Amino acid sequence: MIRFATPDDVPDILRLIRDLAEYERALHEVKATEEQLRESLFADDPKVFAHVVEHEGRVVGFALWFLTFSTWNGTHGIYLEDLYVEPRFRGHGYGKALLTELARIADERGYGRVEWAVLNWNTPAIAFYESLGASPQDEWTVYRLTGETLAKAARG
C-alpha cells in the first residue's frame, strides 16, 4: 500500500501535484515537469524522496520530502514538502499511513523531527494533523525569496 516511489510513478506524482495545486488555488504556479521530477527523485545522489500509496494498483496519494538539519539538536529531520491523497480516497487511512511511514523513517534513522507547512485556511488538513498529535509552530513565520527578489538578492 505505501512504498517508495519508482520512476514509473512520476506521471502519477505530477498528476497529484497538479491536483494538490488546484485544491490550493495555485495550479498556475506549477512549473514542474516529469523530467525534473525524475531527475530529482532518481538521481545518483537524490536530495528529495517520495512515497506513494496505491489503492487497487493505482497511485492515489503521495508524500514528497527531503532532509533538513537542526543546529540545536545536531540531527537531521524530514521536511514534508507535499502530502496529498485524492479526495475520494480520504478516510481510508492513507494520509496517516504516509505520515506514519515518514515518522518511522525519522525514528529509525535518529532524525529529530518531521515537519511541514499547511495553509491557514486548510482546516480539514489542520484537523487531520492535530488528530495525529502534530502541533503548530505559531511563533515562526516562513519567509521566502523567489523569482526577481531571489535574483536581486543574489546580486547583492
Automatic annotation (TrEMBL):
State if Acyltransferase is listed as a keyword: yes
Any Pfam family from its record, for instance, is Acetyltransf_1
Q: Does NADP appear among the keywords?
A: no
Coiled coil stretches, renumbered: 13-40
Name of the protein? L-amino acid N-acyltransferase YncA
InterPro entries from the UniProt entry? AcTrfase_GNAT_prd, Acyl_CoA_acyltransferase, Diverse_Substrate_AcTransf, GNAT_dom
PROSITE patterns xref list: GNAT
Family, according to the entry, reads as follows: Belongs to the acetyltransferase family.
Q: Which residues form the N-acetyltransferase domain?
A: 1-155
Name the SUPFAM superfamilies for this protein: Acyl-CoA N-acyltransferases (Nat) (SSF55729)
Its source organism is Actinomadura hallensis
Arranged from A to Z, the UniProt key words for this protein are: Acyltransferase, Coiled coil, Transferase
- Entry's Gene Ontology molecular function annotations: N-acetyltransferase activity
